[in-house]
Design a protein that fits this description.
mainly alpha; about 80% helix
């Protein structure tokens, strides 16, 4: 339980910094013997309060773009998050077990090369409908798995709007919170999240502490240090899941 608590602190802090907290939380729960699908659902529920805490810290620093509006963007996040959560519960658990290492690997590549991919794939200025469609697809991924979804959102916005990536972190936190909230409501009532309440509470409590602390610490640490921390965590957790899958 102590290790799960500490994993929650690390996950909440990483999510406040730039994303990647689900890597740590998912690995900790699976390592404690929880089935991967249940662990993924529990991670979403447990990390929501920490993400919401970070959003509260950032509430006066929210910057975005005019079209689509933040409200429209949030609606796309809510709708996509609901579909992604439903897919996780409806598809066979064996499918998720098989695809998790590859999802982690994909998210790690985005973490490592997101800025370069954004620069290479400059998409100009598509209309609001195209931006909302892209946000909807990313939210489906976030509701189903969620690894590095916040970074994917930031890269997508940078490639399709005039948003300054240096000012986009608060908006990222809010949109990820919308995806997590929607998925968490579904998981609480339709998954086995509440069957292991001790693990859930330990991870949740740690994530709240980490989310609040991380949102304050991020202002003081150099960006290069933060990026190296998130990427190192992602690489390590991806390697561990591949070893587990093929052992």
């Amino acid at each position: 339980m102590l290790l799960i608590l500490l994993a929650g602190v690390a996950a909440g802090a990483l999510n406040a910094v730039g994303g990647g907290g689900s890597f740590v939380a998912l690995a900790a729960l699976v390592g404690a013997g929880m089935p991967p699908v249940t662990a993924n659902a529990t991670t979403t529920v447990a990390l929501l309060p920490g993400n919401a805490t970070s959003a509260w810290v950032y509430r006066r620093e929210l910057a975005g773009f005019s079209q689509p509006s933040p409200g429209q963007l949030t609606l796309a996040s809510v709708g996509g998050g609901a579909i992604g959560a439903a897919l996780l519960l409806l598809l066979p658990s064996a499918s998720f077990d098989a695809v998790v290492p590859w999802l982690l690997a994909f998210a790690t590549v985005v973490l490592a090369f997101g800025k370069r991919l954004t620069a290479a794939l400059r998409l100009g200025q598509p209309g609001p409908a195209a931006i909302l469609a892209g946000q909807f697809v990313l939210a489906i991924y976030g509701g189903y798995f969620g690894g590095a979804v916040g970074l994917m959102m930031l890269a997508f916005w940078t490639a399709t709007t005039t948003l300054d990536p240096a000012l986009g972190n608060p908006l990222r936190v809010v949109q990820v919170a919308a995806v997590y909230l929607t998925a968490a409501l579904i998981f609480v009532f339709a998954a086995d999240v509440l069957a292991q309440p001790v693990q859930l509470v330990a991870l949740l409590a740690g994530a709240v502490v980490g989310g609040y602390t991380g949102a304050h610490v991020v202002r003081r640490l150099p960006p290069a240090v933060l990026r190296a921390l998130v990427l190192s965590t992602a690489v390590l957790m991806t390697a561990l899941f591949f070893v587990r899958a093929f052992a």
